[in-house]
Amino acid sequence: MEKTTTTPQPVCAQESLALLNCVASVPYDRDRCLALVDALRECIVHKRVKKFSLAEPSSTTSTEAPKSDPKP
Fold first, then answer.
1. 9-42 pLDDT tens trace
2. What are the φ/ψ torsions at residue 23 (nearest 5 degrees)?
3. At what angle do helices 13-24 and 30-47 cross, to 10 degrees?
4. CA–CA distance from 69 to each of 57, 61, 64, 72 (Å)?
5. 16 near 47, Cβ under 8 Å?
6. pLDDT score for 31
């Protein structure tokens, strides 16, 4: 019998990701993003989250957004 390991999903991950993707989308839909802020807040209160933090980046993957070239 094989053991499989799964990484637990961070608290309120879906709500956080949805909000970040909303803010990054073009065209920006402020009303939709505000609704997602409310959904994230509701999750935070329900799960009693005190503080968020980002995981340390590993040496094999990059989590940084690509840097854009400065305009001449």
1. 888 999 999 999 999 999 999 999 999 999 999 9
2. -65, -35
3. 160
4. 23, 22, 15, 9
5. no
6. 98
DSSP 39: H
Q: Please state, in angstroms and as integers, the Cα–Cα distance from residue 46 to each residue in 13, 16, 18, following that order.
A: 14, 14, 18
How many residues are there in the chain?
Answer: 72
SS3 of the chain: the string is CCCCCCCCCCCCHHHHHHHHHHHHCCCCCHHHHHHHHHHHHHHHHHHCCCCCCCCCCCCCCCCCCCCCCCCC
Confidence of residue 62 (pLDDT cuts 50, 70, 90): very low
d(CA 23, CA 16): 11
- Token representation of residue 69: 């070239």
